[in-house]
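Researcher: Next entry in the queue.
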Amino acid sequence: MKLGVIGPEKSIERVSDVVRKNFKYIELVSLKYNIYKEAPAIIEKFQGELDGLLFTGTTPFIFASKLVIPSIPWEYIPSSHESSLLNVLLKASVLKGYDISRISFDSYNGDLLYEAYGEIGIEKDKLNISIAEEKILDNEYIDYLYNFHEQNYSNGRVSCCITGIESVYKKLLLRKIPCFKSKNTSNIIREMVTKLKLKHLVHINQTNQIIVLVVEMDLPDEQSIINKNEYQMALKNMKISEQIYLFAQRIQAAVIELSFGNYILFSTRSILESETNNLREIELISMINKNTTSTVSIGIGYGRTAREAKYGANLGKERAKKCGGNRVFVVYEGEKIIGPINNLQSNNEKEEQIDEKFIEIARKSGLGVNTIFKLHSIVKQYRLNSVTPSELARLYGVTLRSMNRIIRKLEQCGYVKIVGRKSASDVGRPSRIIHILF
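Model: Structure for this entry, 438 residues:
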């Protein structure tokens, strides 16, 4: 584990000594600052290279949390822990002889202070302590704390000062004001590092969690022209399959084709969320919408086991189908359903538009809808960018005369364009080369 420790130099040294003695397999990275307001910039620069981040105090943690989004586990060593407070009170009283019933504090709240004093037998009504307000986001916070302690000592209200912030401690020392910097005990440091290690392990398990995607091609409407053409249905499935495998490559997923138009993909949480902008952009939907005339229903399952994730993915897929297709639903641990998270044109709407297009061509040309659709299928099946009437007649299964009649009607409506001529021999009229513009 690569652990970043952020704080003043002396605080980092204190933490480093404890970690090196108690945690053999942790690599420490020192992230030193002079004042806590430098912490956000340092974190943004180094966070991506670390497995965890430990703050040596509460103040920099609170300040950085307002400005930086954690991408790794964060933890802080609490400045206001009762054991560290009792430790510093003991030093002030026994080693230095100060009256600890008269002290000015920062970084501690009143409840903790009164509780700690109660533990050593000094009741609240016997205390004359001063507690600084917490104004961490205030630009003048350091100056405020220094002035707070300096005025309390100069006015004789306190015998000494206790601070949790290194820069305040140094300024008070320069003025020769009796002061102490709260120091965390080894036990607190060990406790926080252990907590951070556990957070790191949880983070690893979450990012490597198996995620299941179930993808099903939406079938066309029963009355759709495409539904009555077996080749067109197979072609649709091939095109969808191509897009699914392309998407699977991006999320490094294993793909299993369960049946015609049904697929199951296995990936990991970290890869899927990275490639989909935390599930906000499921590009598979867009890829299929752009490159095919089909739609799909997708379920994404998260679970504590692969079985639970698969169950959730199937549940999400069924919910997507009920919403008309081209929908994605996410199911967490088999029960919590979120979605739809992607909405594009539904399957029925697309099929209706395709059918309406063929009907429109048939109406304008005076030909039957089945004739138009059969021509469309032949062009797609044989990938005919350009073709002669005789070749088209052979593939269609009619005489050249009948095909010329069909072509003529389509040409009059602008659905056929003559793009050239070619001769099969030196004698006879050159044959036209046409391009069908459906």
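Model: The chain has four domains: 2-77+188-203, 82-183, 208-345, 349-436.
Researcher: Noted, moving on.
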